[in-house]
Amino acid sequence: MLSIALQTLRVRWAAFVGTFVALTLGAAMIAAMGLEIGATLGLPERAPQRFAAAPVVVAALDPEWDPARHDPGSRSLIQARGISETLAAEVGALGRTVPVRSFYAQLSGGPDDQVGHGWSSAEFAPYALAAGRAPQADSEVVVPSGGAGPGERVTVFTTGGPQDYTVAGVTAPADFESAVFFTEAEAARLSPRVEALVAYGAPEAVRQAVGGDAEVLTGDRRNVLDPSYNADREAIDNTQTLLPITAVVAGFVSIFLVASTFAFAVAQRRREIALLRTVGATPRQVRRMVLTEAFVVGLGSAVAGCALGLGTAPLLAGWMVDLGLAPPWFTVEFSTGPAVWVPLLIAFCMGMGVALAGVWAASRRAGDVRPIEALRDAAVDTRTMTSGRWLYGLMALAFGLVTIGWVALVNPGMVMVPTRYIGVLMFPILAFALLAPVVVKPIARLITWPLGRLGGAAGMLVRESALTAVRRTAATAAPVLLTVGLSISLLGAAATIDRAKDSGRRNQVTADFVVTPDGTPGVNEAVTERVRAIPGVDVVAALPTMVYARDDARLADYEALAVDPAALSSTLTLPVDEGNPADLRDDSIVVNDDWGVGVGETVEVFMADGSTVPLRVVAVLNTTSGSNDVAYLSTKYAGTAKYAFTGLARRVYVSLRDGTDPATVRAALESATAGQGARAIAAEDWLGEESSENSETTSLGMLLVLGIAIVFCFIAIVNTLVMATSDRLRDLAILRLAGATPPQVLRVFAAESLLVAGVGVLLAVGASAVNLAGVRLALGQLVGATPVSVPWGTVAVITVISAGLAVLGAVVPVRLAFRSRAVELAGVRE
Q: Boundaries of each MacB-like periplasmic core domain copy (predicted)?
């Protein structure tokens, strides 16, 4: 049978083109996604910049700290405490040392990532004075070039607020950061925390003196303190989150469509296989022949797919950079390392595996073909559902329904984590695709009911063709089902979750006004104090800090907000599991359920500045909605914010007391924030801005997740329709011989393709309804009743394109077939 399989491939190569294309694209998708994921595993190799001239650097670093788990800029307990005076003295006994500080300092109109340092730090980096001199008085600064010149007065925003300084000097541009330099005394006042210590002692002696209290950095390892190092890690974090989701969706799409295409290709050859059985081929020989064909086609397509993946991966990386979903430096570089050959090996093996697995069930059916079927000339499907298809379809449906129900009723917070929940959405779509032949007839009757009422031969042909060739209709509708089903399910779930988050924010924020940063990374202390001084208002400044508590044998870290306890209840409504946030005092804390403690318990809390205090738990918050993952402390601990973060408030909530005039407060807020790097807006307007920004971010992420899969689905729609239409040349010939004109024939085939698209769309709507019902039920558990929101405009565009491609896939082969005479087409053997 090996020779027969090879001869079949050589003679009937056109019949295998569709399968080859599907396998090649599937392997290419897997290879490209693997290469993208591999490219995220490494950061750009940069030489030390900020400490390029430092011989030895002692840094307070925590090797177990994972910045991806926290907001950008947060620090571990070791990092927050910095270099202690004791450690500095021990290292200083070995030779000269220079303390290094980094803190928030932004020139008015400067970039929001501008930082401040003591002037002594400039000698370790490629900073050079382009004009003027070093700062000598605490009222002097050295600024980057491009702004003020020596002798001019400038305003510098700091954590405490804007302050005026005299420019003593100007530094030449540095490409790794924009820094403002102060005297050492002024830097120590603005930032008591010492980030690192530059030591001039012998490296080994310094290491012995430091022990395990800090890390001693030399050579290229000094680059971990560069701004670009943390920026690279933070920038690649979103990419590393999105790519696995995209890979899951792409893998699901490619495997399903390849298997479906293989099964359809074997079904098209049913009479041919029956002829082999008639001349004496055994079922085992038939199965071996089909598997051999799949192996040869799979081998060629896997190699071609890997090559195509190598070519498209850099293009995909560039697309992600253009969308802002990856950092500018992100690219796929080809080498002999495992980041390249491992994804290619996986893609090759999966391509071969999908080819053999996809054809296995079809080969079993091929072996069961009876010789008498070679005498049949009708295209009526006598058995549309095999036992295996029933089994897998019902299993996928049951698993999908059970999983959706479990998530909705037991673990609703899972819907807020896309990396965990997107896989659940795949099963109803898969189930509807597998069980499609069961409902194709009733759906086709429903769609073609108007055609039956109107009468006419064309309508009757379209209707009966779909009803008699159920397997073909289901197979050609599958790519449309997948395309539209993924669009509605993923885009609808994302939009509905965004709407729920927006509703949760609206329910939580009861303030009347919100003060937000304006060209700065946060709201400074001066603004907060000015706002607090406005009569008739309650104010809560969301000042981020970090707290740490014992969790079994380890020290767990938690983000927290230092707030005014008296104003908390009037500005925010927190989702409480137990207790009352209004009971918050200087000696207590409000925690979330991640802490694993209850109301009334006392926990020993390690503050970011190194102090340790016992705090009593007065309330426990629910975190399942994903928006309440912080603890709340009294403003007594606001000073720790300079150690844990920049010391700037994320925003300031302002609530009006009874009898306070809103217009008066608005005017006072505008005065309090003018020229302070902040702005005051109505809470409703702020909520709208937040909702719009989050929706835009989500849409871009979904564009990446869906974009690659939908492009493949579009190609699969054309591929499958071309295969189905090319197999019906005798139908075309009969229509021509019966007197149908070419335009009439084209209209019939176009109408059939639109009917197939309609079947796929209705099945997609059914599968998506199951998915979105589960999302709505889960969100109802979290934030209350949430209407389902679907971007129907985007879905409509995708649906129209799918239908248009289906028509092209059917009409173009028919149009090309008109070049041959009808009698020649009628004599073509299947």
A: 480-671
- Name the more confident of 736 and 448: 448
Of the candidate ranges 165-169, 187-191, 211-215, 664-668, the one whose mean pLDDT is the lowest: 211-215
**Both 221 and 240 in a single domain?**
no
Domain termination site, one of 318, 346, 376? 376
Same domain for 348 and 424, yes or no, is no
Q: What is the mean pLDDT of the chain?
A: 82
Is the same domain home to 607 and 721?
A: no
Q: Are strands 115-118 and 140-144 parallel, antiparallel or unpaired?
A: unpaired
For residue 309, report the phi and psi dihedrals to the nearest 5 degrees.
-65, -40
Q: Are residues 140 and 85 in the same domain?
A: no
Residue 157 confidence (pLDDT):
95
Q: Which residues contact 27 (CB under 8 A, 6 or more apart)?
A: 254, 301, 302, 304, 305, 306, 308, 309, 347, 348, 350, 351
Is 371 in the same domain as 385?
A: no
User: 354 in the Ramachandran plot: left (φ > 0), alpha (ψ -120 to 50) or beta?
Assistant: alpha
Read off the pLDDT of each residue in 460-471 and give the average, rounded to a whole number.
68
> Does residue 547 contact residue 619 with C-beta atoms inside 8 Å?
no
Is the full-model pTM beyond 0.85?
no
- Do 256 and 333 share a domain, yes or no? yes
pLDDT in tens, 663-693: 999 999 999 999 899 999 998 888 887 766 6
Cα separation, 629 vs 447, in Å, equals 49
Give the C-alpha separation, 262 to 604, whole Å: 63
Domain range enclosing 154? 102-192
Distance CA 516, CA 537 (A): 17
Rounded distance, CA 255 to CA 392, Å? 15
